[in-house]
Specification:
The protein has about 350 residues and is α/β, with parallel strands linked by helices. It is built from 13 helices and twelve strands. It has helices at about 5-10, 20-30, 45-60, 95-100, 120-125, 155-165, 175-185, 200-210, 215-225, 230-240, 255-260, 310-315, 335-345, and strands spanning about 35-40, 65-70, 85-90, 105-110, 130-135, 145-150, 240-245, 250-255, 285-290, 295-300, 320, 325-330. The chain is globular, with a radius of gyration of 21 Å. It binds manganese (II) ion.
Length: about 350
């Protein structure tokens, strides 16, 4: 990989990240030895992919770097290179706290507010290390010293790639880093099926492929690997539990604790389920409610301009993106359903207008 390749990639992707932010990150990196990279609670492919991708590169330039996750990485992502060296706060609380406290630089990836690291928040905020946020969620909070926030970016992994290029570290992206970055880009766009019209995505993918990424294998591992019981659970949810609320353009799936138990539910088993009802032309938004031990997990997806982030925020105090959002509800599943159904009509104005024949 020579200087020409570096110039080529710089010329092919636009410099959306502010020069001052890049300068500050460059300076902070030059001053630091011990680096911690962290991401949001219940990490997804983008959170883990971005973190590990950055970790591989910083390790290649000689940093003492470790990824600290608020809780465990889902099983579907355990194939990613470097994932075994990550430290989950929920499992190694003391060690994770020590790493955060002793760090001289912390990267906060794929989250916009410190509360997104849940129980790890106080340890994160207590650390004196400067913090760099790289994220694509709306409304970045004020806890970080450098904020690289681009909600128009389809993934944080893409922003990490952009940041690395701007730091002139493109050459240090090896196959492992490329696999992690690609996985983040792929999972946050449903294998490039939504938020995926930016031509630059495909310039970056081409570069990652040149670094040895096997995209077909990564798709199979991260997006299309399910256990028998999880396939059956998803089939059951669609066949028996999907309620269509046609007048609101909405599909609602609920799974209670006994149903999850019956299908030996493990975390990640219903990943992607909420997207399935959007296949129906009459469904503009889809809701999936799952009864977890201490709360109801609310997931919403939508098509077009229907703002599920507004529904999640107004009704359940959650948030997210226009077409993908979530929340947690403290109460019973029945109460959650009732709350949701009572609010549904408020969003009918966002439904696409029905074209009537003249
Ligand atoms: Mn993301």
């Amino acid at each position: 990989m020579g200087f020409e390749d570096f110039l080529y990639i710089c010329s092919m992707i636009s410099r959306i990240i502010d020069e001052k932010a890049i300068d500050r990150v460059r300076h902070l990196l030059s001053e630091s030895e011990k680096v911690v990279i962290t991401c949001h609670l219940t990490p997804d492919g983008d959170a883990i992919g971005s973190s590990l991708g950055l970790c591989h590169v910083l390790s290649a330039i000689g940093k003492d770097v470790v990824v600290v996750t608020p809780d465990l990485t889902p099983k579907t992502l355990l194939f990613l290179p470097g994932v075994k060296e990550t430290v989950a706060y929920t499992r190694y609380e003391e060690y994770a706290t020590k790493l955060l406290a002793e760090a001289d630089l912390i990267f906060c990836l794929d989250f916009n507010e410190s509360k997104r690291v849940d129980r790890m928040e106080s340890a994160l905020l207590a650390s004196k290390a400067p913090k760099v946020m790289i994220d694509h969620h709306l409304h970045p909070g004020e806890f970080a010293d450098v904020v690289i926030s681009h909600p128009e970016s389809s993934s944080t992994a893409m922003l990490v790639f952009r940041t690395l290029c701007r730091l002139e570290l493109f050459d240090c992206i090896d196959k492992s880093a490329a696999e992690c970055i690609y996985t983040g880009m792929m999972t946050d766009t449903g294998n490039f099926s939504y938020n995926s019209n930016d031509p630059e995505l495909y310039v970056v993918i081409a570069e990652l492929l040149k670094k040895g990424v096997d995209k077909d294998k990564l798709y199979q591992r991260a997006c299309n690997t399910f256990s028998e019981s999880s396939l059956r659970l998803n089939g059951y949810a669609l066949s028996e539990k999907m309620e269509l609320l046609a007048e609101h353009g909405c599909s609602l799936i609920t799974l209670d604790a006994s149903e999850l138990e019956r299908f030996h539910y493990e975390r990640g088993d219903t990943e992607g389920l909420v997207n399935k009802p959007l296949a129906m032309p009459g469904v503009t938004w889809s809701v999936y409610l799952r009864e977890d031990p201490t709360q109801i997990k609310v997931s919403m997806r939508s098509k077009g301009q229907f703002p599920v982030n507004a529904v999640c925020k107004d009704v359940f105090g959650g948030g997210g993106h226009l077409n993908a959002a979530g929340a947690e509800f403290k109460g019973t599943l029945a109460e959650c359903v009732k709350t949701l159904k009572e609010a549904m009509a408020n969003y009918d104005s966002y439904l696409p207008k029905i074209k009537t024949k003249q």
